[in-house]
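User: Before I run my own analysis I want an independent prediction to cross-check against. Here's the chain; please return only the structure tokens and, at the end, one sentence I can use as a sanity check.
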Amino acid sequence: RDLWYEFVEKDKRDKPILEGEPERSYQYATELFDPPMEPFQTKVKGRGLKAKRDIPTGELIFKATNNTVIFSHGHTWRKFLFAINERHGEDKPLDDPTTCDVLVWSWIQRLVKDGPLVIVADFDNGSLLNEGRDEDGWELPNVRCGKEGDKICHMEYYATKDIKEGDELLCDYRGFAMINSWPAMGL
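Assistant: Structure tokens:
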């Protein structure tokens, strides 16, 4: 996250934000949250999240915190990826693994109904939430973004059923991520 702070300050120096223009990148929230989940290595999918205790239906499992950042411009997000990759300087190796992680852990969504598209990136364990779907060949999701009946994801994720300690947490990304919207962000 420190690199992101440095990046935002440099971005503002290089191209000051004009009056009336939105921030090109900002933290979604400032509060902290201790989620009832922990990272683990899955057998097939790589990294994931599992319940560190029993979680009842409807409980808040994860929410956007000071580690969730928003990019309102695709170009700014792209510049941030380059900044991650090149952060060690010309005489040191590029940071391809971290750059790739941030690329994969970013998604596009609207934060308000009919609002502008933004790119969201979590710089904490929330980025390890794997996908589940109610379709053949997938494990069923047990987490959703928003409460039952919400029409838009408000960056809060709830248990859709009782989850036992050690169960993997899975969410259908299609409930919030606009997977085919990268061209609309200029990417």
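Sanity check: The chain is about 20% helix and 25% strand.
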